[in-house]
Amino acid sequence: MRTFLAVVSFSLLTVGFFAAYSNYGIPQIEPAPPPEVEELDLAAMSMDEFVALGARLYQGRGTCTLCHTELGGRAPLLEEAAAVAAERIADERYQGEADDAAGYLYESMVAPSAYVVAGFGKSGTGDTVSPMPNMATGSVGLSEPEIRAIVAFLQDLGGFEVTVEIPTEAVEEAPEEAGEPRPPFATPEEAIAEFACGACHKLAGEEGELGPDLTSIGARRAKDDLRRAILQPNADIAEGFEPDLMPDDYGEQLYAVELEMLVDYLAGLKGP
Fold first, then answer.
1. What does CATH list as the number for 42-157?
2. Which of 81, 86, 158, 265 would be 188's cystine partner, CB 3.0–4.6 Å?
3. Weakest mean pLDDT among 28-32, 77-81, 191-195
4. What is the pLDDT at residue 24?
5. In Å, how far are 4, 59, 210 from 220, measured between CA atoms?
């Protein structure tokens, strides 16, 4: 009996020690709150303030620095974007409609496949399709004034005169038609392409390096873990990667059936 009590006491002390250590000894990672959408008083905004707004969006809610940095390496650096605009418009591969630097920079955010810089296209497309999503839709969803503010910032960043004009009033968003939700994605690949998952992950033929390699994730993670990683990406950060890189609102953007379709797809990725 004495031995039994000793074993029970030791077990309780051990469990208590690890519980206390896990709660107080290990630093807790608190996910950053989602970036707030600024209320824009465009009529009272100076050009310097407009450029500063563009800088904040570029470095924050626009998520531009996830890819357009030397560290990211998944997209061209943009310090010279305004300088090379005319050259790219004249390139025979250009498929857009811009006729000046401001138009090209704007177009590069809402129709990024109009011109794909060599070496930065989706794998297998011959640099004709960009992995970058339309910045006016999806998880980023910038408004027209916000996109124009980033254009102003990029012109200023390159040392050029800012030619984009501040909109005189906020552009009203067209109300969504009640009862007409978007059609669900038919395949997991369609959802992966829409949300540009391959820009950060090795997945579906893409070679992103900012996030974990997912080509064999199903061999390492159960479905519950995969589901949580999509809905709460900061809950468990893979070793060697930073928190707050993956958007945390996919639970709001995906239908339940799409979420489960993605989870099943990822669970089936067992590697070679």
1. 1.10.760
2. 265
3. 28-32
4. 53
5. 38, 33, 19
